[in-house]
Amino acid sequence: NFFGPSQIEASLRQIAKHFGPEIEERAERVIAKYSGLTDAVIDKYWPRLHGKRVMLYVGGLRPRHVITAYEDLGMEIVGTGYEFAHNDDYQRTGHYVKEGTLIYDDVTGYELEKFIERIRPDLVGSGIKEKYSVQKMGIPFRQMHSWDYSGPYHGYDGFAIFARDMDLAVNNPVWDLYDAPWQKVTMPAASGAAE
User: Fold this and answer.
1) Lesser CB count within 10 Å: N end or C end of the chain?
2) Rounded to two decimals, what is the model's pTM?
3) CA-based angle 169:72:9, to the nearest 5?
4) Dihedrals phi, psi of 160, to nearest 5 degrees
5) 134: exposed, middle or buried (C-beta count within 10 Å: 0-12, 13-18, 19+)?
6) Mind listing the pLDDT tens digit for each residue in 23-39?
7) Angle (CA) 15 65 56, round 5°
């Protein structure tokens, strides 16, 4: 897993361990070389993203692999799921999420919308099919399939792009112009027929 510095470091160390002390020492040099970059990214974006709640619904491995990249920025994954997953995808995902995280499988647009209304995330990361309905709900959105023509998000340089893009999505002032469904004030129904 090469999404986010914590997983990049763990992956480099795990790979290097198979090749002996010389390669392990080189892996540590690579980690040290990029620690200034990742520290600067975290220092810049942590105050803006810390505590923000994220829901994911992405194909492939990304629902579990990007979780720690969000967490490296202080964000919390409150829901994640797959459109085309296998049993082992869910078993592996369980290692990445915290207890209480909603995990869903092959949800319909209606189901995802209801999950969003119930969980009330600050950001949804999904595919193009979900993008516009989520945005119409007044929820910041990042397309995680093609990275909304940005990215890449993997690797050290990609983490800086990832952090910038999540900040641009969550903290964009356009969201102040919309109310999420749970923020809308409902008017009481009109009383019966005129007397």
Assistant:
1) C
2) 0.86
3) 130
4) -65, -40
5) buried
6) 999 999 999 999 999 99
7) 180
